[in-house]
Amino acid sequence: MSWILDEEKLLNVNECYTREAYPFINAFYIYINDNDYIDTISCEELHFNWDISKNEGIIHNNTLLKLIEEKKYSNHKKYRFDEGCSFIIPLDPDDIYGFSEATQFDSFQERFLKPFSLLNDLRLIPSIFIFHSINSLYFIFRETEKTKPIKSILKISNEPIIKSSKTKTKKCVRVSLPNKKNKTRKFLQVVNS
């Protein structure tokens, strides 16, 4: 029935509404591949706590880190978190007319779209009910590079070593420190005993 209340508010929009709390915010997860193209975009409602005494919503950094950990896989690919931004429109009712008549939106872009850090809690400010569905969080993920496993220089092969009773071979690795001429180089010597 909340849509009925929203419609009634829109019909009575000539009344002066103040900025108010909202129960959730839309979270968009944008996945970018190695070629800098967007692979997928997913969206979900993110519910959070509203601190009435401070009149702000709080999403704790632990919650953000947990979201990022859960969402780093998409379409059987692994992604790493790159950036997070919040888009919240904190206009007062008196400012809406000036905003609708504006032709330069650069100043508004800096006010509405702000990056957030995962080290701190994310604090959300109240907005007019018209903008509640537009307010959103953006999480940008980039595809991780596939790396080959590092092989040890001491390991010869994956085959088991067959010991013969007659000869025993032992491989030693020595690190010799450089002399005074070559102070920046290290030399490895492989010695068969």
- The secondary-structure class comes to alpha+beta
In helices, the fraction of residues equals: 10-25%
Strand percentage lies at: 25-35%
Shape: elongated
The pLDDT mean sits at 78
Total number of helices: 4
- Major beta sheet, specifics? 6 strands, mixed
Total beta strands: 11
Task: Supply the number of structural domains.
Answer: 1
Summarize this structure briefly:
With 193 residues, this protein is α+β, with helices and mostly antiparallel strands.
Describe this entry's structure for a reader.
The protein is of the alpha+beta class and about 190 residues long. The chain has one domain (about 1-145). It contains four helices and eleven strands. The protein has helices at about 1-10, 60-70, 95-100, 105-110; strands at about 25-30, 40-45, 50, 55-60, 75, 75-85, 115, 120-125, 135-145, 170-175, 185-190. The strands form three sheets. Strands 1, 2, 5, 6, 7 and 9 form a six-stranded mixed beta sheet that branches. The chain is elongated and about 100 Å long. The model has no long low-confidence stretch (mean pLDDT about 80).
Question: Layout of helices and strands, plus pairs?
Answer:
Blueprint: H1 2-11, E1 24-32, E2 38-47, E3 49-51, E4 56-59, H2 61-71, E5 73-74, E6 77-87, H3 96-101, H4 106-112, E7 113-115, E8 122-124, E9 136-143, E10 171-176, E11 187-192
Which key terms come to mind for this protein?
alpha+beta
